[in-house]
């Protein structure tokens, strides 16, 4: 009789190799799944290792395009940012990876999906909430096996040495390279660094930690200029200093990553608040996303109505970012929020001229050929065309009604004019 | 019989000199008032000119300390920022200037205050809403004379040449230096640049425009490190690379400005939305404020509760910034908001290690000797002390209830797993 | 040569009759426009009077259907309410009236529109912001004549006696009925009452003031039950106690008004905050709207996801209501908000069983044949199908992490268990 | 050696009597704790039963005053309401009960606290999050025993019959009265009804279910009027129709309950969203709270600044209510929010004249002797004192700038004037 099959999110590393073997020990056939979201990876070596450990099948899926177009560009439309700093690189990748893993599970008639996320992090939540939202489209009875939350697993493998001993014992090939003193997760949007020596929030990350960005200190001494165009808030064209023009989403994105890498753009080092309520230190380098967000925010200044922008900033940006961080991409509330943001982007058409230099991205100028909210004539202090200064007197006369009441109450209460 | 007196906010420039003379023509005695909010200014020359034009008195008030302590530091506690970019330098100065002008008006028994703000900008609103809130503490009947909104003035002085002609005619000394092709407003928090050639939002500002920052391109090739400490969210100590320690608010602030200037920190170039509904292009350089905000945001990551931070970000930061921009510092809603933000800062105690280099400010690390929300032990993926991974399974089990319903509805509606 | 034409919003009352005549005196031909938004009105008498005063034309437009379907039902989908009490009856009517008046102005080649709103109220703002948004669809150069804000008018007609004297003088027929000691505005959604004796907020409105509702004190001693069904949040069917079934929007609405009138449903008496910053006392009776809102809010409890509801309550309901109140129906921000709310209503399908009695509307029960978010099985405390109580332990275990930190900080600070 | 002690929240009912016995079986001494939060209860009988079952001690604590003053009145200041309908009666009681239970646990040197809440409800979360926040003030190592979430308990007692059988077997006296076909929770603020026959949301609750309110159908045919005064938003005086004056918080509250009961005030029947994500049908009758909230909302119309009110409505009311519902009273975010709301109440001083009749509460009028935000003079359409209608023209002239841009864009896009 055929064994039940499990689709495991496989990384090629120590943890998921042990999990792969352990799942086989539990009586499962294992389909090893890898997502290609743009990370630097030797997929052939990973395949070889997975099959060597005992996987019945190895599947890699190229998700780069859907990752960029569906998630990264949507984040840019939302000006997404978590806790004022983090551009959500990992959070954005999880939905496409989880969806692909469920597709692979379905195609291979798996009765469960499994992953190697630890029990205290955000990723387990992101993967599993996605699985549970998607399961009905696949097979409602599909199970999730999270070994790092199963006592029989986490008590057996209490430390790295237990994993290494087990690997030696069962013949899992262990890469000779010494483990980094932190953990990483890489995709097109960013590379993240956490744990290990980074757990002391006062330890400055070593410069060779950053994988996607060169150091600003050694970046070129000459700024590099380029133009980014948007259509309905979506990056639509990149024109480089050399005159190269890119319109394909993935090419545009990877070219921006290359430009950003060279100039050290997008390094972030923060203490953030995980969904489960623990504070955690994370470092991220996100070259393309940093440039795209700066350009999009700038263009909106030119072409978006003030009140739409204010409502969007307070409501959409804040909530969309929080939802994504907490793993709620597949949720009714994310769909609800996106209806408004998509509508708001209809006018976000134009071009931003940018410059990168030594770790910073600057805006040199911006223009739109179609949108007319900005008018130099109207803005000008020197022109009174279509504008009567007397109106402003009335505007102030009305706006002051409430503040005058406020002042009168203060006076009645005996307050004085001295410093508060 | 004594003439009625007007207290005029005097800048020493062409506009307010003409206004001074014009007010005298209208039958007033004029008290010329200047606020020292840290701008580079020849106050003696301004006094000489004001008296030459005919002012009965010249008063300058040093407002630097109240500006930094009451407004700038409060803005830092709020992480204040307008439309994602502008640190509100001008908006922050207006309340202290307006209050001081009203004090001077009161001391000199003026029946009106006057200013030289144009009829399309934000500053007229900020000054006048402040005046109208404060008037009851001074003299409820005090009037505001805004010449640039009076037809008898703005029709007479329709262009710069009219002002120059009048100056020549009435003997107002005109500085020979050619006017800048933009207008500026400087204080300790920033210098702003707008109008003139900047009205084309695609014109890159010339590098020699920036008054408070050296160019990142010519900034030192060596990063400069320093430490900033906060007590209850207020900057309390700056320790420089050379070991110098500053705790006086104004000294700390001006030293940060000097450090930031040298390394080109805090240049911003945006299209923003004025209170009166017109879009406007503004450039700002705010060295100290940029550094202080980056440090404060970072420290809050370490010491502020997640939900307090989220409510503060969505509610306080957004609204406080909008209020200040729109001239509503003296308002019941600003007082209302501040009660919460002040309370939230009780735990914002600690030190941030920073680095500035070629236009960018980076965080090297942070620590707090008193606050304990962050725990490396708890954060560590390797430690299960005080933490059972089984709890997370339950957490996900409950959190998934809603998303599973969502997925089921999607499945019932016939959606598939393919790209959205 | 033809005189320039003005389209005047004409009510048949004293004010707009005087304005009509005054406009003619200023050299205009006047097209008198009346909107039929369901108010009780003798349109024939109004026409006769308008023509007698000198209007060149009288136009009445039936706007009941677009008022109910476009505005009232949208308000119900939004659970719209202003300052916790007011169902926005007047605010909802203004956009359809203004749009129709502009259509009539266009059809009659008017160069201006005019209205009789006073200079301190909300309606002038609502009408004119609508006019200014719509003008480009009609004739960009169209003017607005607001006599009550023109010194030459308001100084001439300083009181009611001036209006009466003028009427006598120019032969405007004055209705002999004594004016009510308050002003009213009626449409299908409500009747409003303000000013006059109501300006003392401690004066209880006389019972005979209420025009659309009988007194709860004299309402039937027997409750009346009926069912309301919604499709995508839109009222789609009313089934009365007698078994009558109504599906036409206007019939459904007017029948609900009749039911509500009989049972005294929907009287509101508040002090509210006008857009221009003045507090004002207003009374409103809104029978159908009160019933519809109660039913819609109830149904959403059954069929709307929790987080969608929470975001909608905090964001959409609040802001949509404020926008409508302030006259910003024709605005980019209203369009922005509606995208989300419309999407959220896809699942709002079901029926609410209601009861009205002596001024109160109660919900007797509700059901949906299509939506399945509610599950009695799942909700039941007695059933553990699909649910492990152990999950809740984990959920609490994770949720407590932050509050335990909070408690520990309190303990460290020496707080005790006694009352706060 | 002494057995370890557990403090059990004891109700006198079947569940907690079985739990009491079961805890003894597990080797604990049990201190039975009852909170007096104003429910109708035979405390002597409960004590007798607890001791009969084997409790080593029985403690009842009178929490009525702290419940009313600390929680109920704070809720009134916040206009607290959950999902537009529920006045949070149970949610408000949990913090004071949990705190008292922890005090009793501390005084009796208990090593654990226990409760009889089921595993799918809100109350377990509310109690336990409170316990975990408070534990450090008592004994950091204190445990929580939640039998309905322990497999060894819930698998043994799978249905009511198992509880009855066990009771018979171990000699727990079972009240002969037949159980209600729903469960209830009563305190001064309300009585709640859920589960059982109420799980079908289309079943109308039987009229004899409601415990705190007489039926509106049989309520007096004569309305009852009374006055409620507030100081800083706190109910400070009740003056009844008979001239009785009450100022003591608990007396005022219970008298309002009596008035409301007689007139059938405050019945609510909703489907709500539990914290754990399940929808649930709940019925509540809350006479005093309903009256107090109506009065407080009304008074704020008279005395609260518009923008403070708007920020409070959107931010404080929404979030405070959600926090309380979800059991997060003891949390940093609740403290954060309250700082603003308390400040906002400084001006909420005045009296509301009210009337109750057949299930509805109406406002007859309101006045304040100290607050002056409302001015009949200013509000009056007939008075132009301190007000120039010309200002409104300017106000509209400025406010229209954005909407005219919007209209122009629509026109450019070819939209027409017809119905949207």
TrEMBL record, chains A, B, C, D:
<protein>
    <recommendedName>
        <fullName>Argininosuccinate synthase</fullName>
        <ecNumber>6.3.4.5</ecNumber>
    </recommendedName>
</protein>
<dbReference type="InterPro" id="IPR024074">
    <property type="entry name" value="AS_cat/multimer_dom_body"/>
</dbReference>
<comment type="pathway">
    <text>Amino-acid biosynthesis; L-arginine biosynthesis; L-arginine from L-ornithine and carbamoyl phosphate: step 2/3.</text>
</comment>
<dbReference type="InterPro" id="IPR014729">
    <property type="entry name" value="Rossmann-like_a/b/a_fold"/>
</dbReference>
<dbReference type="GO" id="GO:0005524">
    <property type="term" value="F:ATP binding"/>
</dbReference>
<keyword id="KW-0436">Ligase</keyword>
<dbReference type="InterPro" id="IPR018223">
    <property type="entry name" value="Arginosuc_synth_CS"/>
</dbReference>
<dbReference type="Pfam" id="PF20979">
    <property type="entry name" value="Arginosuc_syn_C"/>
</dbReference>
<dbReference type="InterPro" id="IPR001518">
    <property type="entry name" value="Arginosuc_synth"/>
</dbReference>
<dbReference type="GO" id="GO:0006526">
    <property type="term" value="P:L-arginine biosynthetic process"/>
</dbReference>
<comment type="subunit">
    <text>Homotetramer.</text>
</comment>
<dbReference type="GO" id="GO:0005737">
    <property type="term" value="C:cytoplasm"/>
</dbReference>
<keyword id="KW-0067">ATP-binding</keyword>
<dbReference type="GO" id="GO:0000053">
    <property type="term" value="P:argininosuccinate metabolic process"/>
</dbReference>
<dbReference type="InterPro" id="IPR023434">
    <property type="entry name" value="Arginosuc_synth_type_1_subfam"/>
</dbReference>
<dbReference type="GO" id="GO:0004055">
    <property type="term" value="F:argininosuccinate synthase activity"/>
</dbReference>
<feature type="domain" description="Arginosuccinate synthase-like N-terminal">
    <location>
        <begin position="5"/>
        <end position="173"/>
    </location>
</feature>
<dbReference type="Pfam" id="PF00764">
    <property type="entry name" value="Arginosuc_synth"/>
</dbReference>
<feature type="domain" description="Arginosuccinate synthase C-terminal">
    <location>
        <begin position="182"/>
        <end position="405"/>
    </location>
</feature>
<keyword id="KW-0028">Amino-acid biosynthesis</keyword>
<dbReference type="InterPro" id="IPR048267">
    <property type="entry name" value="Arginosuc_syn_N"/>
</dbReference>
<comment type="similarity">
    <text>Belongs to the argininosuccinate synthase family. Type 1 subfamily.</text>
</comment>
<dbReference type="InterPro" id="IPR048268">
    <property type="entry name" value="Arginosuc_syn_C"/>
</dbReference>
<keyword id="KW-0055">Arginine biosynthesis</keyword>
<keyword id="KW-0547">Nucleotide-binding</keyword>
<dbReference type="GO" id="GO:0000050">
    <property type="term" value="P:urea cycle"/>
</dbReference>
